[in-house]
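Question (not urgent): is this output format expected?
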Amino acid sequence: MLPPPQGFSFTFLFIDIICGLIGLTIILIFHGSALNHIVMRFERLTKANLALKQYNRIFFHFYVTFIFFALIHISEIFIWSGIIIWLHLIPSTVQSILFAGSCYTTVGFVSDILPTGWKSLSFFIAFTGLFSLAWTTSVMIGMTSLYKEAWNLKYDRRKL
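Got this back:
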């Protein structure tokens, strides 16, 4: 681990930015891969269920997929926590998880406990949370059209 800087240092800011960009890249690759896998599975199952008129299964897959999305985000918080612990920035695992979760969700319920020279890492954690949550939201909106289609087919059939 690097010694803490005395005052402002471009070297430490550069190291902080590089570590933040590496973490951001790791998280976004993980997020995109996991999200794509889950969405492709949802679409494959949904199309098969639509063909068989199994509308309740579509509803079930829809909500289970949301649970998987939540687990992806929780995993990303744990990945950031692991990076923080690996860099020896926060010694406590629980504090590291809470800090990463606070930054990732941009709620900010935990004060900045990073050591001097590593303060901008919290920005990168927040960026990954913002990007990942927005990405997930856009995918969920796309999934809603399949859900709505199944809903309409199920309940329009009863009107006939």
